[in-house]
Records
---
Amino acid sequence: MSAPVVAAARIVRASPAVARKQADWIAGIEPWKGLGYRAQPLGRYLARLARAGSVWIAQAARRQPQGVIVATDDFLLGGFIALLAVRPEASGQGIGQRLVTHVEARVFARRRWLFVSCDAANQGALRFYRRQGFARVGRLPDLVRAGRVELLLRKARG
C-alpha cells in the first residue's frame, strides 16, 4: 500500500453492515486474536455501536476500509476509544493517527478528556498512543481477560 492511498483515505461513519464486516479481519490480528476474540460476536458488537453512530472507518476510494475506530462518549468526563484497528497491510501509513485525530476533534468539541485502554504487553500500541499525547493514568488487572493487565491512558483537550 502506498502513501497516496492513505492520503486519499477519508474518515466516514460506518453503517452497521460495513462495521460488522470489519470483524473478520480484526479477529485475525493481534491483540484481538491472542485475547480470543471471535469474528461473529465482535461483528455484532461493531454493528450495535455503528447503529449508535460510534464506529468510524478510514475509507480510500473503491477500496476496503483500511482501519476502524470505535469511540463512545460520556466516560469519566470524556470520550473513550473502545477499539482501534488498522489492517496489517496499511500499518505505519498514518491511518491510526488519522482515525484518532478525527475522534479527538469530535470529543474535544464537548469533552475534557479522551481515554483508551491498552493491553500492557502491547508495546507497539503503547508507543503509538504515547506519540498521540496519551499518558498512563491507571492499571486495570483482569479487565479483558484473567491474568492480563490493561493500562488506562488519557489525553487532555488542548
Note: Residues 78 and 113 are 4 Å apart (CA to CA).
---
Amino acid sequence: MRTLRSWIRDLFLSVLISFFIILFVYQPVRVEGGSMEPGLEDQERIFINKLVYRLESIERGDIVVFRYPRDTH
C-alpha cells in the first residue's frame, strides 16, 4: 500500500509540474500552412518560449505564435 501511495504522489507531482511548464514556460506547437516558408516548413514542430516575453519585449525577427480566433477546433 505504501508503494501505491508513493506512485500516485509521484504521478500527481509530475503532472502538476508538466502543466506548469506548458502553461508558463515552454509549449510544443505545430506549424500549419506554408506562410512561414522558407524559415519554417508546413507541419514542422517547434517549441515556443513563453517565459522570455514576460521579461523582455518582442523584437523584430521574433516568431510570434497565436491561435486563429475563428478556428472551431
Note: Helices lie at 2-24, 52-55.
---
Amino acid sequence: MVVKSNAQTLSEENYLKVIYRLGQVGPEKISLTSIAEALNNNPASVVDMLKRLVDKKLVQYEKTKGVKLTEKGRKIALLVIRKHRLWEVFLLEKLGYAWDEVHDIAEQLEHIQDHQLADKLDKFLGFPLYDPHGDPIPKANGEMAITYKTMLANIADNKTCKVVGVKDTSTTFLQYLKKLEIGIGTKIMVVEKIPFDDSMVIMIGKNMRTTVSKVFAENLLVHE
C-alpha cells in the first residue's frame, strides 16, 4: 500500500481516519452528525471539510446515503492507521512508554509524510500483527489480521479467557488496567456474575481476585 499522502493536511487525514472507523462500527450510513461528534467539531466545519474531500475524490457524500470513502480515501485512511498502530508498538516496546501513554504520541507521529517510513518501521518491529491495544495493524497491501474477540461481559462463570484488546482507550481506563496488572495476553477467569448489577468477580492471573463493574467488563475484549 504505497500511498503518498503529502497532498493531505493533518485535518484531512484525521477526517478520513474517523470516517473509516465509523464505517467499521456498523452498516448504518455515516452521517455528518456522527462525524462531528467523533471529532468534537461543529456540523458547519464538517460540511466544509467534506466539500474539500469530495473535490479531492477522497469521499462520496449524498444526504440520503451519507458519507463513504472512495478507494483512494480508504487507502490513505489505512496508511494513517497503519502508521499510528506501528508507532504505538515502537513506543511501547522500544522506548518504554506505558500502555496509556502511546496513543496520544502516536496521534502526532502518524502524520509524518514519508511513504517509506511505515514499511521500514514495520520491518524493524518484526512485522507485528496487533498494536498494544489489540487492534490489527494494516499491512502494506491494506490487509489486516482477523481478530476473534468478545467482551469480558459475555464470558460465562468458571470460564477462562485471554485479554486481546480494549474498547475504551482512554487514559483513565488504561491506567486502571495497569493498576490491576492487566495487559494484552493476561489470563482472566470469571468466578461469578452478580445478577443485581451485572458486575463480575474475576481472577486475574493466578493470584488476584477482584470485582469489576459492568462497564469494565464491556470495555475489555477477550478471546476464549
Note: The two ends are 33 Å apart (CA to CA).
---
Amino acid sequence: MLRELAAERERPCLLFSGGKDSIVLLRLAEKAFRPARFPFPLLHVDTGHNFPETLEYRAHRVAELGERLIVASVQSSIDRGRVTEETGPRASRNRLQTTTLLDALEEHELDAAIGGARRDEERARAKERIFSHRDEFGQWDPKNQRPELWALYNGRIRRGEHLRVFPLSNWTELDVWEYIRLESIALPSIYFAHHREVFERDGMLYAANPFVRHLPGETVRVELVRFRTIGDMTCTGAIRSAARTLDDVIAEVAAARVTERGATRADDRFTEAAMEDRKREGYF
C-alpha cells in the first residue's frame, strides 16, 4: 500500500505522533523503502498538550531514522486567529487539530496523508476506505466512498483534493501489539504500567497535568496505570494495570472487551457521532 501510494501521488506524508499505530507505520515504511530515504516527510500535528514521553520518543525516532519531520502547531493556529481555544474544565485542543492539519497540507502542498487509524477503534473509522478521498475543503463524505474490490485502490484526485490512507485499517489492537513483539519495536514507556499522579473524572483516570482545571471534589493520587492509546493529556485516560512487559500487555489486550478509544478517550464521548462529525470536517 505504501509503495503504491508513493507511485501514484507526488507529495504524500506520514502522520507520526509517537503513538503505537504510527510507530508501526514507521516500521512498515522502513520495510517498504529502506535502504533509500522515505519518499515523503513525517508530519506531526502538535497540540502543545502532548505527553512528554511521547514527544521524547518522537524526537529520538526521527533523529535515529534521519527523516524530515514537519511539526504543525495548534498553538500557532491559535496565535494567528485560525482557531479559538476552548475554555472551562473540560477544554481540549483535540478538535482544533483539524484546522492545523488542513493548513499544513495546503502549506506544504501535500496530496495524501498516511495515518494509523484502524476500523476496530471506532464506528466512524470502520466506514473509511483504505484510500479515503477528501474533497477540496478537506472534508469526508461517508456516503460517497470509492469501491475497493480485490485490494485495488483508487489514488486519483482532482487539484485541491487529497487522500487519507490507512494501511492498518484492517488490523486490530491485538494485531498491532503482536507485530510490535514480533519486530521488537521500542515504545514510549507510557504504554507500560508505571506509577503516575492521576485524578478521576467521568469514570476515567487522567494524568495530572497543567492543562486541566480540576472540578470540585477531584483529588490527585498516585496509581499504577498504563495508557492503551495516546492523545492529548486533556482527553486521554489511563487504565489501572500491572502490565509491565509486552507479553503482559498482549494478554491484557486479548481479554479486553472495549476498544482503546472507547475505554479511554473523552473526545469520543461528546455525542454518539462525535468522531464522524470531526472526520466530516477533516479530522484524522
Note: DSSP finds nine helices and ten strands in the chain.
